[in-house]
Amino acid sequence: MDLSTIDPVALFAGLVVAATPLLFAAIGELVVEKSGVLNLGVEGMMIIGAVCGFAAASNSGSPVVGFLAGAAGGAAISMIFAVLVLVFLSNQVATGLALTLFGLGLAALIGQPYTGIKPPDFEEVHVPVLSDLPVLGELFFQYDLVLYFGVAVVALVWLFLNRTRAGLVLRAVGENHDAAHSLGYPVVLIRFAAIGFGGACAGLGGAYLSLVRVPQWTEGMTAGAGWIALAIVVFATWKPWRVLLGAWLFGGVTILQLNLQASGFLSWLQSLGIPAQAQYLSMAPYLVTILVLVLISADRTRARLNAPACLGRAFTAAG
Amino acid sequence: MITLRDMVAASALALGLGTGAMAQDDPLKVGFIYVGPVGDFGWSYQHDQGRLAIEATYGDAVETTFVESVPEGADAERVLRQLAQAGNDLIFATSFGYMSQVINVAQQFPDVHFEHATGYQRAENVATYSSRFYEGRHVIGLIAGEMTESNVIGYIGSYPIPEVIRGINAAYLAAKSVNPDVEFRIVWTNTWFDPALEADAASTLIEQGADILMQHTDSTAPMTIAEEEEGVFAFGQASDMINFGPDAQLTAIIDEWTPYYIQRVQDVLDDNWETTDTWGGIDTGMVAFAGMSETIPEETREKAIAAAAAIEAGTLHPFTGPVNRQDGTPWLAEGEVADDGTLLGMNFYVEGIEGVIPQ
What we know:
The structure holds 2 protein chains of 2 kinds.
Chain A: H1 8-34, H2 42-60, H3 63-87, H4 92-111, H5 135-140, H6 145-163, H7 165-175, H8 177-182, H9 187-213, H10 225-235, H11 240-263, H12 265-271, H13 278-298, H14 300-304
Helix pairs in contact in A: 1-6, 1-9, 1-10, 1-11, 2-3, 2-4, 2-9, 2-10, 3-4, 3-9, 6-7, 6-11, 10-11, 10-13, 11-13
Chain B: H1 2-17, E1 28-33, H2 43-58, E2 62-67, H3 74-85, E3 90-93, H4 99-108, E4 113-117, E5 126-131, H5 133-147, E6 152-157, H6 162-178, E7 183-188, H7 195-207, E8 212-215, H8 221-228, E9 233-238, E10 249-255, H9 258-269, E11 277-280, E12 287-289, H10 298-313, E13 323-324, E14 330-332, H11 340-344
Parallel strand pairs in B: 1-2, 1-3, 3-4, 4-5, 5-11, 6-7, 6-8, 8-9, 9-10
Antiparallel strand pairs in B: 10-12, 13-14
Helix pairs in contact in B: 1-3, 2-9, 3-4, 5-6, 5-10, 7-8
């Protein structure tokens, strides 16, 4: 065993980079769910964002254009979902699943000319003085702009939901769409906007994957990240800051277990007769998610504080 | 989500192809199932190259279909059954974890010929085939042992099955033979294909001092990460990954399935197909190499090429004694060569490798 090879600073850096795609997708989905819509198509929107972002970045040579295209792609495909569930009142769960299937297939098609290409480099930000601080600089001031933007989005979403009138209306729509409607709020329009925002965020998360974290385009490269984002929203009990915590935790265990494996720590524990497995660590956040789900169903009053009451229910103006 | 997508793909396949009875002049139908997307540019891609070669060779006499990204386990059984019902006469199942599913479905369709890659269970109508990838691992182990500056080789493993463990052992023994100070750091991903996780594993290994990476997973992500880091090199896995690491790739072990696939199709066409167990190495052309990088010192390159030639000629076996097991108990005596049975069931590290194989 050689734990000294684990560099805590590098570990933290790996963690926040791994968490960023999850963070974008989850914070977007949180807003969608707060408006009362359950969109299970996060995975599909992410991969569309990944391929659109990659294609735009390699064609234009600019990662910024890539991120914008990723967000636009995610938002565009989410509009298909929005029209189906809001206008044609289709089942949200089934439509969301279909969106994921469609997204994976469409992304593979769009991405065909882009396999084996290297995307343009995305420079890390160098803040004078701050980036040069010994440990702090490495910990907090050595990332790319999009990563900081992700944290900023969490803050803005929190501010929007809790400190603005528009955020209050969005939450009202999610809690009781009939009441919101009778007060004269445009329920369908608000949900369109929320779904579009969710799509753009998922698209950004996908683009981060294909432009920064991997960086390449490969079919099916999201490999389930969209589903983890959905779990994070539940884990976070629909609170923005907990989404940040959840994303770092879910991303963090992945990085941590890889580090523990590479350093030989797990093997050392096993040699002592402790049945340590990397899988236990990987499992932990999901167990917590299940626990949250159990708690929510056990204690309805507490759950009502956060889980939108109209989540997943179709809205008709007549009803 | 792969699950549902496959369900849709497989049912579409069944509907599209129908289950019409075979007439004499109908083309031979050949089905493939892949564990990853054909665009992985690794394992599944390479099998699909074999499928395309069948089409190119036999033209209208053969009709091929494939279902990609089929998870190992219960889903595979459904896809295999649908391929059989769709009238495929020859079905290639190209991942280790399809094993019991292939055997189950083969019992229900005694007239369909099944071919299972890297498995060990056979039946009347189930043949198995694999390559002696460990021969390739020996060659890249030599290169890695001579080239590493940090003496740390990073190894990204998928699942702790004999084939992967064998690869680790073969590479380690070869690296150790030219560099006594070499150390292997092994990370298990528990997946064949997850580019983001594979990229993270590669970054982690590099952070922990590895300057040469080997992988037994299917995506090109580790190669991309190696390319980004100055002074870090990697070996392509299953396919030539030079596009993803023009500076980083030292060489690649290429799985060449084409000759085998063409032969097996011919066997079915000739009504000559039999249950066989094929385990081809460098000598049969099933294990091949991508061009050696200019970065490799001349002397090392010659050594690697000579080793490959000796393995091909049968004068060198990568597992030649004396070799001890990890716990120090003797495995191979001086000059003794490992038998295929032990190699196929290999579930232990050789002496010198640190770490425990996950259970």
